[in-house]
Description:
Elements: E1 4-8, E2 22-25, H1 26-29, H2 34-45, E3 53-58, H3 64-77, E4 82-90, H4 93-102, E5 107-111, E6 123-130, H5 138-148, E7 153-157, E8 168-172, E9 175-180, H6 184-193, H7 196-204, E10 209-212, H8 218-229, E11 237-238, H9 259-266, E12 273-276, E13 285-288, E14 291-293, H10 295-304, E15 319-322, H11 328-336, E16 340-343, H12 351-355, E17 361-364, E18 368-371, H13 379-393, H14 397-408, E19 410-421, H15 423-440, E20 444-445, E21 448-455, E22 458-459, E23 466-467, E24 472-476, E25 481-486, E26 494-504, H16 514-517, H17 519-529, H18 531-535, E27 542-543
Parallel strand pairs: 3-4, 3-5, 4-9, 10-11, 10-12, 15-16, 15-17
Antiparallel strand pairs: 1-7, 2-6, 5-6, 8-9, 12-13, 13-14, 17-18, 19-26, 19-27, 20-21, 21-24, 22-23, 24-25, 25-26
Helix pairs in contact: 2-3, 2-5, 7-13, 10-11
This protein binds alpha-D-glucose-1-phosphate-6-vanadate (VG1) and cobalt (II) ion.
Residues 19-20, 114-115, 278, 282-283, 322, 345-347, 364, 366, 368, 487-489, 497 line the site of alpha-D-glucose-1-phosphate-6-vanadate (VG1).
Amino acid sequence: MTQVRTVPTTPFEGQKPGTSGLRKKVRVFQQSGYAENFIQSVFDVVERPEAPTLVLGGDGRFYNRTVIQQAIRMAAANGYARVLVGQGGILSTPAASNVIRKYKASGGLILSASHNPGGPDEDFGIKYNIANGGPAPEAVTEAIYARTTAIDAWRTIDTPDIDLDTLGSVLVGTMTVEVIDPVADYADLMEELFDFAAIRAVVASGFTMRFDAMSAVTGPYASAILEGRLGFAEGTVVNGQPLEDFGGHHPDPNLIHAKDLYDLMMGPDAPDLGAASDGDGDRNLIIGRGRFITPSDSLAMLAANIECAPAYRGRLTGIARSMPTSAAADRVAQALGVPCFETPTGWKFFGNLLDAGMVTICGEESAGTGSDHVREKDGLWAVLLWLNILAVRGISVDQLAKEHWARFGRNYYARHDYEAVNKEGADALMAGLVAQLPTLAGTVLGDLTVAAADSFAYTDPVDGSVSANQGIRVLFEGGSRVVFRLSGTGTAGATLRVYLENFVPPSGDLDADTSAMLAAQIAAAEAVAGIAGHTGRTAPDVIT
Ligand code: VG1
Ligand code: CO
């Protein structure tokens, strides 16, 4: 048997997983032993049965292959019986979640920094998912972090890199490594969930779309499903080749980084549907001809129409949304007579609700939507559900949106991001808000009066665990609100997110300009938080 080699090490500071795994600059990960310390810490603390299987894959960004090869050697030295790795080291985040569940793996390592840019000077990340296919819950990430602060050795075996590009099995020590097709299982799952025949029929009768894969991981998935199985014309998928640096762009599907798509959809040559996904394939952007759909609205509209999709017919048990996500979904839940849960930001908080069958569909304002088919948000899934609904109902995105608002009212919504600001300033801003909390109710800020304000804390209804300090909520009389949070995925300084929401009932103006509808909330946010003073910024970097 191949000899296990134990390599002495000392802890690195700051190996604390954030909203979604450990994310750092590539240069940080390239320090000798950095990735190894973290991976060994995972292996040291996570639950594993006898002869466990590990799933391994990533979004194809720079440094992906290096860490995959090292993780295979370390898995062999740490008692894994089998590793399933995506061909070329590729697995989108939702596809990895599916593979973990389908092949009953004990967990998986997903190598991605998601929507963060890639390349030698940009970002890398490692995330561990548990046996249900979902992101490790906080108790597990905290145990991993604690282990990183005390680690003194990692284990490996000395064996050359395996061929990641050829499908099939090889032995690494006594462990089997199977290089699997990253797309096939996922595409099969999508075909089980949705009415592909109905979609094929509208495509054949002239329905068109553009899917921008942003040179990230969804290219091969989108090509196989949209052009391959559904019959969309060749060229429907653009930027479909995964690149190590995403072509120098941020693989973040929003109106800034997917501006070409947005411009196309607002212009005279717009296809029926425009969509995009992020670095690791778990986010989605939906734009109809002349009509952008906010992710919060998308969740509500998908939930309201989920009966159109065969796999969901008659089985919507509940809806969950992250706290900063608009309350549009709450109104749908109420109308359908199912509960709506409000969780902290990050997909890991949906896992228990999904496992317990308490919710069927979940979403976040950050362009994440998903269901109980896997335990991650799923970009292409959301696009396919939209296609399924449009095909079955025979209406446009714009018509569907207008009909939805006429029934439920409209939650005008925007998020303002102040990126890479000074950390001390951002912390001071948040501390200033916390200090004001006891006296904010009743305060008049311009046209608005504060009804209540708090620091959001969540008690998981399944296991009772409590997560405090999940963002500051300022709720105004009349139902509008402002939420403040610091990002847990950034790798430089701090990123302040300000979430703005204003509800208009069906009798109100349903087709107004979003920034005009949020002007009072924007002014109130500045007045209460002193954003310019604390960050030195007079305008956000990104508005989504
Ligand atoms: C952001 C989003 C959050 C999302 C997370 C991971 O986190 O706000 O909703 O779950 O990214 O998404 P934060 O802490 O930066 O606000 V992904 O697609 O980057 O894995
Ligand atoms: Co992502």
